[in-house]
Specification:
The chain is built from 8 helices and 11 strands. By secondary structure, it is of the alpha/beta class. It has a single domain, classed as TIM Barrel, CATH 3.20.20. The strands form 2 sheets. An 8-stranded mixed β-sheet has the order 3-4-6-7-8-9-10-11. A 3-stranded antiparallel β-sheet has the order 2-1-5. Strand 6, helix 3 and strand 7 form a beta-alpha-beta unit. Helix 2 packs across helix 3. It is globular, with a radius of gyration of 17 Å. The relative contact order is 0.16.
Length: 247
């Protein structure tokens, strides 16, 4: 059984779109958004996957969400059938933190490959959770987004050295760091050096949930990328569709 986020009550957030961030930006993709997260970023744009009524972890919006309207449980085979019905053969498992449901995801991806053959499977993770042994060999690309201090998460939860080292050693992994201020680059440089992360596998992305904020931060963030040999990634889906579910 998988626990999914919803677009509307009881409607799972499974959709076809363009990958908006990171190494695969612009590529047609099918998305499956999982519910629940082990972290709580102040600026999270999918807080409806974890900040349910009664959760007092801080968030910029100060909103909480009714669990019954924003979460739905489906059998793995049913999710596989829904994904197989969509055209893109690039699957992005996102959240929330999808690796919290690694065993069920492994069963879903295996069922999907039986239905449609080979898929390119990406998983978006905050980098603090190890992939389940059954899921790991089914993943083609890890999009790892370690949460910096400005996210509001304590480093003891968000930046686990052995996990970051394992992802850094995995050639399937790309790293995406969310940048809110110029000074955030110092934390990135420290993590890159500590874990020997190749600059060519590092993407810096402006924090923001609207085009104006993203463009303003992109002006100086692009210079930092050029200076340090990192890649720049925008948030394409925000520019195209805004901060909306199912995009």
């Amino acid at each position: 059984m998988l626990t999914l986020a919803t677009t509307t009550p009881s409607e799972p957030e499974i959709f076809a779109s363009l990958q908006g961030e990171g190494a695969s930006v612009g590529k047609p993709s099918t998305f499956v958004r999982l519910s629940r997260c082990n972290l709580a970023c102040h600026w999270c744009d999918t807080a409806y996957t974890w900040r349910f009524s009664g959760d007092n972890r801080p968030h910029t919006d100060g909103l909480d969400f009714a669990r019954e309207a924003n979460q739905v449980k489906l059998e793995e085979a049913e999710v596989a059938q829904m994904v197989a019905a969509l055209k893109p053969d690039r699957l992005v498992l996102t959240g929330g933190e999808p690796l919290l449901q690694g065993a069920a995801l492994a069963r879903m991806v295996a069922a999907l490959k039986e239905l449609r053959g080979e898929f390119h499977v990406e998983i978006e993770t905050n980098g603090s959770v190890a992939p389940h042994p059954a899921l790991d060999p089914l993943i083609d690309q890890f999009n790892v987004s370690p949460k910096l201090a400005h996210s509001g998460n304590p480093a003891s939860l968000a930046l686990i050295p052995e996990r970051l080292a394992a992802y850094a050693a995995d050639p399937r992994a790309f790293f995406k760091f969310v940048i809110a201020e110029r000074s955030d680059i110092e934390e990135v440089l420290g993590l890159v050096a500590a874990h020997s992360i190749l600059p060519s596998r590092v993407f810096l992305m402006p924090e923001g949930r609207d085009s104006a904020t993203l463009r303003a931060r992109a002006r100086w963030l692009g210079d930092l990328c050029a200076e340090h040999g990192f890649n720049f990634t925008d948030r394409l889906h925000i520019h195209l569709w805004g901060d909306t579910r199912g995009t």
